[in-house]
Specification:
eight-stranded parallel beta barrel; binds erythose-4-phosphate
Amino acid sequence: MQIYLDTANINEIREAASWGILSGVTTNPTLVAREKGADFKSVISEIAELVDGPISAEAVSLDGEGMVKEGLEFATWHPNVIVKVPSTTEGLKAVYQLARKGIRTNVTLIFNASQALLAARAGAFIVSPFVGRVDDTGVDGMQLIREISQIYKSDPEIKTKIISASIRHPRHIIDSALAGADIATCPFKVLQMSMRHPLTDRGIEQFLADWKARS
Ligand code: E4P
């Protein structure tokens, strides 16, 4: 399973990219708005310089035609840009039109397996089921990944990839891989947490103490 970073923060992307673990980046309007005053095109172009993999940029139009128009513009910014559209019938129209023009899409805000199936049939490159937000409703979000994975695997025509999104903690990353996700898109903090273990810290301290005390 590949790891993407779910942020529009350049410092976080630069740091995680230096670890050699990043295969792509996802952004959304909320994440871009957090980078106060940043110009959308400049942010996406800068990310594309730092990470050599799919970079999702989200359209804000609600109608398919508007999404296609935005998507066509995003696609001129960098060849790695993926156009993110919401999981609506207008979003499906945009996916279908953009796919016919050779532009890859990420269908976001997926909350049930039928949305994922229809997105794939329309020609989505990636779908983004929101595991954490499903968990928040008291339902097992990871079950959604299992269902979509099973459906996609049973249909040889479907090449769409599954991004496990709305990741909240390190266990979500492990469970996403076990459930069949192709990618987990993670907040920077969750990636940092994933690498921390008190026994690792204690082990380093002990090794250093023994090294200093050697005769
Ligand atoms: C995915 O592409 C989204 O940007 C993201 O995972 C949303 O997560 P949230 O529920 O933490 O906002």
